[in-house]
């Protein structure tokens, strides 16, 4: 009887490639780890993540928000402030990122 290679079929059901596609960037991982400590404002994230430019932080936050991993909340203070937080989906993948 011929043996079936289950490694290939098991990989087809594995969600890891999709997760890596969403957060594979080094900045995305650092942003998620930082937001895992609690909600942060843009400037707090910028100061906490060494070496990230404002442009890269903006692009990555937009990408994470678009993929449902980060929420963006605008507070109508004077001046207005924006706060970012991770979603329950991001919370589920955060533990392996910190390992």
Automatic annotation (TrEMBL):
Alphabetized UniProt keyword annotations: DNA-binding, Transcription, Transcription regulation
Claim: NADP is one of the keywords in the record: no
Residues of the HTH hxlR-type domain: 14-99
SUPFAM superfamilies per record: Winged helix' DNA-binding domain (SSF46785)
Any GO MF annotation of the entry: DNA binding
Database matches in PROSITE patterns: HTH_HXLR
Endpoints of the signal sequence: none
Pfam family, one: HxlR
Record carries keyword Transcription regulation: yes
Protein's UniProt name: Transcriptional regulator
Gene3D superfamilies reported in the protein's UniProt record: Winged helix-like DNA-binding domain superfamily/Winged helix DNA-binding domain
InterPro entries: HTH_HxlR, WH-like_DNA-bd_sf, WH_DNA-bd_sf
Lineage: Bacteria, Bacillati, Actinomycetota, Actinomycetes, Streptosporangiales
């Amino acid at each position: 009887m011929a043996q079936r290679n289950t490694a290939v079929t098991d990989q087809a059901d594995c969600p890891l490639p999709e997760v890596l596609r969403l957060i594979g960037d080094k900045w995305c991982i650092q942003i998620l780890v930082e937001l895992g400590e609690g909600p942060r404002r843009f400037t707090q994230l910028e100061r906490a993540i060494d070496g990230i430019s404002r442009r890269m932080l903006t692009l990555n936050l937009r990408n994470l928000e678009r993929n449902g991993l980060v929420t963006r909340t605008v507070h109508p203070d004077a001046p207005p402030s924006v706060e970012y937080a991770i979603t329950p989906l991001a919370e589920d993948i955060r533990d392996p990122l910190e390992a």
